[in-house]
Write a sequence for this structure.
């Protein structure tokens, strides 16, 4: 039981609906169109998402990957996986700026196949295409389509989102709990939401309210589990 309670990895599935919008309203609307296979109404069928680590780029790509017509690719995939198929209408390439040289060639070929045969391709990177250290033809192709920065949440926005999530589930948090989590745990929303879930379960197991002592105790147990 204790092992389960401390498993931060038991986070909720990554979906477009549980992505905290923040300053990404326009982008999220676009991705909903893509997920619903309405991208034919768009002028561009290629989208590049860029932003800092933890902003939510991979969350968005994994949310799109849950559709049954999508193929998710990462730098760990074999070059043989970068192939167009008539069964796939949505191609998702995560962390394209980390592709090895031979996979960059494969990604460039896939881009051309999607352009010629149909489909949509969404790519993520840490920087805008113009600043990526990729082979020139691939970098140029990525800049052809729509380019969106994924804006991370401010600390105030994270606290507000977590507070609303806690209220929706009837959780009562002592003052200072959420600011403490922001300074003593991983700061991305996926991890913070997972910790909030774990606090809920731990509070129920111990029959104690979610106060600062409980939070410190749970984080200490988690750290001990990892060492």
């Amino acid at each position: 039981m204790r092992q389960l309670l401390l498993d931060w990895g038991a986070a909720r599935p990554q979906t477009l609906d549980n992505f905290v919008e923040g300053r990404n309203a326009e982008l999220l609307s676009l991705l909903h169109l893509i997920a619903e296979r309405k991208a034919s109404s768009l002028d561009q069928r290629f989208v590049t998402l860029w932003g800092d680590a933890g902003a939510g780029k991979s969350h968005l790509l994994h949310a799109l990957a849950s559709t049954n017509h999508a193929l998710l690719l990462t730098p760990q995939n074999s070059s043989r996986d970068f192939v167009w198929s008539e069964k796939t209408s949505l191609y998702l390439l995560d962390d394209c700026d980390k592709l090895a040289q031979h996979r960059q060639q494969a990604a460039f070929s896939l881009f051309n196949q999607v352009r010629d045969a149909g489909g949509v391709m969404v790519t993520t990177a840490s920087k805008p295409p113009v600043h990526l250290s990729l082979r020139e033809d691939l970098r140029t192709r990525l800049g052809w389509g729509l380019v969106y920065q994924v804006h991370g949440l401010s600390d105030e926005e994270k606290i507000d989102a977590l507070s609303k999530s806690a209220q929706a589930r009837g959780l009562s948090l002592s003052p200072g709990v959420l600011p403490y989590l922001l300074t003593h745990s991983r700061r991305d929303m996926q991890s913070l939401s997972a910790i909030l879930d774990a606090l809920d379960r731990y509070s129920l197991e111990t029959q104690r309210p979610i106060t600062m002592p409980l939070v410190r105790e749970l984080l200490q147990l988690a750290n001990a589990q990892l060492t």
